[in-house]
Design brief:
alpha/beta; D-Maltodextrin-Binding Protein, domain 2; 5-stranded mixed beta sheet; 6-stranded mixed beta sheet; 18% strand; 11 strands
């Protein structure tokens, strides 16, 4: 072997290797796929929807400069299908009401609440036909509700204000949408339901006797994420939560301004989204109180009425451990 000739090629070989390394270093690493989030049709999630993608709004807030879509949004109009699909592993995160997430965590044990998006502030209500001017007038009357939902807790609180109990009225179980039809057809004297179905009976001859505006903190909506996603995609979750809270703060007094942007994120026409009324977005400070480390945040207090009710109907096999169920690690400082 001609050692001198071999040595003569070494500089050339090193140059080729260095060029290959340089090209490899410049080659862009493919970004991770967006998180897969599912939720129902509710105006309180508009900030979450907009936060999922980079828009002019998020750029203006300084929260979207990386131009990366953080999540894809899927909308389910059927709550049962929504939670069944999530439990089946089709999604990384789910936004839902606190009692629904409490029940879901019984079967999906690796679920953690990372932020609470909003609270109902009039979007859930007890509505009666004109001949029934007060809650007391509903004694012995028919009230339609969706069974096993937070509206039963709202109804129980409304009745208690007048010294009544659930046994003092006739409960007709149905869906949130069909309850409106029953009221309009005089098949029941009152209903308890939520927006958007509720919006069809806000005007005379119907009237609101009691609503979530009288029960602050009772009906919260939160975002829960699978534990392995929190471990492997922590930065993405933090970015999403930070964007969400920034948007919620900026648009606190003009929530409906986010509806067109939310429609784009959902891939739906604006007309398909209900107006952002009857809800209030929660602030970063409120979230820090709700999700306080150690499981002793105010979220635990808000959950108590729902835990009692769900335990009574067999919806919870065991009491939730809030040290496991929630985390404040993904909130901005």
């Amino acid at each position: 072997m001609n050692v001198a000739l071999w040595r003569g090629h070494i500089p050339l070989m090193l140059l080729v290797v260095l060029l290959m390394l340089s090209v490899a270093c410049r080659r862009e690493v493919a970004p991770p796929p967006p998180l897969r989030i599912v939720h129902g049709l509710w105006a309180g999630y508009y900030a979450l929807d907009v936060a999922s993608e980079t828009t002019d709004s998020t750029r203006a807030l300084g929260t979207g400069a990386d131009a990366m879509r953080l999540a894809t949004i899927t909308i389910h109009t059927s709550p049962s299908d929504l939670y069944a699909d999530f439990a089946g592993g089709s999604f990384d995160a789910v936004a839902g009401s606190l009692p629904d997430l409490l029940r879901l965590q019984q079967s999906v044990r690796d679920l953690k609440i990372v932020v609470c998006t909003d609270e109902s502030n009039g979007a859930d209500a007890l509505i009666a036909a004109a001949p029934f001017p007060s809650i007391g007038a509903l004694r012995g009357k028919r009230i339609a509700i969706a069974p096993g939902t937070f509206v039963q807790v709202l109804l129980a609180q409304a009745l208690e204000r007048e010294g009544l109990h659930m046994q003092d009225v006739e409960i007709i179980t149905t869906t949130a949408s069909h309850a409106v039809h029953l009221l309009q057809s005089d098949s029941v004297e009152a209903i308890v339901t939520w927006s958007p179905p509720l919006d069809a009976v806000r005007q005379p001859p119907y009237h609101i006797l009691y609503s979530s505006s009288q029960t602050p903190g009772l009906i919260l909506q939160c975002l829960a994420v699978r534990k392995h996603i929190l471990e492997t995609r922590a930065n993405t979750v933090r970015q999403l939560v930070s964007r969400l809270l920034a948007l919620s703060t900026t648009y606190a007094d003009s929530a409906d301004a986010l509806r067109p942007l939310a429609a784009r994120a959902q891939g739906r026409p604006v007309s398909a989204l209900p107006p952002a009324i009857g809800m209030r977005w929660l602030t970063p400070q409120e979230n820090r109180q709700l999700l306080r480390a150690g499981g002793d945040g105010t979220l635990k207090q808000s959950a108590e009425p729902h835990i009692r009710y769900l335990t009574e109907i067999g919806g919870l096999r065991s009491r939730p451990d809030f040290r496991v169920l929630m985390t404040s690690d993904f909130l901005p400082p």
